[in-house]
Design goal:
Layout: H1 4-20, H2 27-34, H3 36-68, H4 76-83, H5 102-135, H6 144-180, H7 187-215
């Protein structure tokens, strides 16, 4: 609401303006018009800077939050578990071994004892056979020395033959036990195989001795 005082002040301003040769205009219009080119670039620069600061703060906040939450990447334990082979169910315990037949066990023991005793007799006669063969070295076939050497070798061969009988029985028993163990218990095979190997070694040793003696006697 206009008052007489306000009207008087307005008239004074208009008079001063006319006296200065300048048309009356609102002060804020001149100021705003004069400052348009200086204030606007300044505001735009500060606005862009503010956006950069806000973006930096947001990035920092995200990186800080990342430390408070677990990573979604696969952990080493998960990689190891994923690459591990599947666990198979445990197999049931094997059936308890079956004892060998009592008759088979007794027979194997008797044959082994027979071969061992035969080898003992063979070794007891080997020394005399070695002497007889040495005495017949260079002797003619049919001579007395030659005949003595031949008898000594035959005596050794006789001792070995008793072991060979036991060896033949063990051979047969081993074949039968091996066939039975294909689809059945192998208790008999486990009993016979070691005895067979023991007697076979004795027979090979005795055969090597006989071959050596015979090679040193003519004929």
């Amino acid at each position: 609401m206009s008052t007489p005082q306000h009207a008087a002040k307005a008239q004074d301003r208009d008079g001063l303006a006319r006296h200065a040769g300048v048309g009356a205009r609102a002060c804020y219009g001149t100021l705003m018009a004069d400052r348009t080119f200086s204030v606007q670039p300044y505001s735009m620069r500060h606005g862009a800077l503010a956006l950069l600061v806000l973006a930096s703060l947001a990035t920092t906040a995200c990186s800080g939050d990342r430390g408070r939450y677990p990573s979604l990447a696969r952990r080493p334990a998960e990689r190891a578990y994923g690459s591990a082979m599947p666990v198979t169910a445990p197999t049931p315990d094997a059936q308890a071994p079956i004892a060998p037949d009592a008759g088979t066990a007794a027979r194997v023991a008797a044959l082994t004892d027979q071969a061992v005793k035969a080898d003992a007799r063979f070794e007891a006669r080997r020394a005399s056979a070695e002497r007889a063969v040495a005495a017949a070295r260079g002797a003619a076939v049919g001579s007395e020395a030659w005949s003595v050497a031949q008898i000594a070798i035959a005596d050794l061969d006789s001792a070995r033959s008793e072991g060979m009988v036991a060896m033949a029985d063990l051979d047969r028993m081993l074949v039968v036990a091996a066939q039975a163990a294909v689809d059945g218990p192998r208790a008999d095979l486990d009993l016979i195989a070691p005895a067979h190997a023991q007697v076979d070694e004795l027979m090979r040793k005795e055969l090597a001795t006989l071959d050596s003696l015979k090679s040193r006697v003519a004929g």
